[in-house]
Amino acid sequence: MQKAFELDIVQAISDPYREASDLGAEIIFPDDSLPVYVQPLLADGIRLNRLKKILPAEGPRMKDRIAAIRHFRETVGGKIPVMGWVEGALAEAAVLRGVNNLLTDLYENPEALETLLEFCVELAISFAQAQVAAGADIIGLGDAIASQISPPMYEKFALPYQKRIFSAVKEMGATCRLHICGDTTHLLSLMPQSGADIIDLDWMVDFEMATKSFGNGPAPCGNFDPVAVLFQGSHELVRQAVLPCLQKGGNRCFSAAGCEVVDGTPPENLLAQVETLSFFECLK
User: Fold this and answer.
1) DSSP label of 192
2) Is the pLDDT of residue 251 over 90?
3) What domains can be seen in the chain, in order of their start residue?
């Protein structure tokens, strides 16, 4: 019997709180839902002495991801790419401080914020390196909060740290993927400077414009709506969303929802994407 589809990647991404949890943040894990962050660890101020100094291999949740990647490598390594994940320095700072505090820090407390970013980037680098050493072919970097800041602030508070993380990953021979949730239209000219090989684009971004902006640089990945199309839509709506992305993205693009696939997404809609990809290949 022929398989309906085959895996094209395995990944150990789960939630944005692994690093924060190992740093001492209180995270609640419901039985059948996403983790809940009770209170930002540094909500009352940037005090680095409140953060545990810990190596990725010693942190329970970071160690768990490393073990998962090692298992993937032993099981499917060499046949299917294995992807690990880290939080970008600015995203991690937003988790530790809380989004509102972080956005205020950008204006009112930039020097202290930079000390926190330095802490976060060093942790991200060591965590990324540990995942590559365990067998990850790709490291994804999530920097969701970056879509909420201006290009000059991105150049100062996000881009330099993304560059450092990706540089360390590439030194170990792995591929780099950048994911920034939301509308990143205003950052399209800057994100390729991060050194990413693949850049995710959320559904608000004009995929064709982004593809042209990247040129022969990073491969675009996206970018249909994960809720209105994949979760709430029909088989036909998925097909109608996937094909234009492929046509606009060119031969180097990756087909994916603009952001995370919603829990409870109908399996038939996921299969509709796979079927559309197969149909598109036949048209070439």
Assistant:
1) G
2) no
3) 7-175 (3.20.20.210), 221-284 (no CATH)
